[in-house]
Amino acid sequence: MRIVFDTNVIVSALLLSESIPRRAFDKALDQDTILISTPVLLEFAEVLAREKLDKYLREEERMRFLIAFLKETELIEIRERVSDCRDENDNKFLELALSGKADCIISGDDDLLVLNPYRGVSIINPRDFLAGISKW
Fold first, then answer.
1. 3-state SS track over the chain
2. Which of 24, 36, 59, 103 has the least CB density, counted as fewest CB within 10 Å?
3. Contacts for 122-130 with beta carbons within 8 Å, 24 or more apart?
4. pLDDT digits (tens, 9 = 90+) for 78-131
5. Quick one: which of 87, 127, 101, 116 has its CA closest to 32?
6. Closest CA to 90 of 75, 73, 102, 107
C-alpha cells in the first residue's frame, strides 16, 4: 500500500515509542511505501525543530530521525492542487495522496477524517490502520 501520514501522527510516533501512532508507523514502514512531498517535509522539519520538543528529545536526535525518515520514504512531486479541506493547511496531505496515488492517509485530525473517503483515498486514524479497517 501507498501511505500518507499527517505530521501529528509522525511526531507522536517519534515521541511515544509504545503508542498506537508508533505501531501504525512501524507497520507502514515494514510493509508499505510511505509518501512525502516537499510541503509535508517542510512542515515536519519545522515541527521537529520546535524548542518545546526539547523536553522529549534533543534536537539532534529529532534531526537524525528526520534524515532516516527521508531515506525510507518516496518523494512525490505535487501535480494537483486542492482546496477541499476546511483547514487549508491540511490540503497538502490531500495533494500528496492524489499526486502519489496513495491508498490511504493516516491521521488523527478531524479536518481530514471528515473527508473520508476522499476521491478514492481512505482517510483513517492509526488505530483503524492497525486493525486493517480501510473505511473505503
1. CEEEECHHHHHHHHHCCCCHHHHHHHHHHHHCEEEECHHHHHHHHHHHCCHHHHHCCCHHHHHHHHHHHHHCEEECCCCCCCCCCCCHHHHHHHHHHHHCCCCEEECCCHHHHCCCCECCEEEECHHHHHHCCCCC
2. 59
3. 126/9, 126/20, 126/21, 126/23, 126/24, 126/25, 127/20, 127/24, 129/24, 129/27, 129/28, 129/104, 130/20, 130/23, 130/24, 130/27
4. 999 999 999 999 999 999 999 999 999 999 999 999 999 999 999 999 999 999
5. 101
6. 107
Alpha carbons 87 and 73: distance in angstroms, whole number: 25
Q: Which domains does the chain have, with CATH numbers?
A: 2-131 (3.40.50.1010)
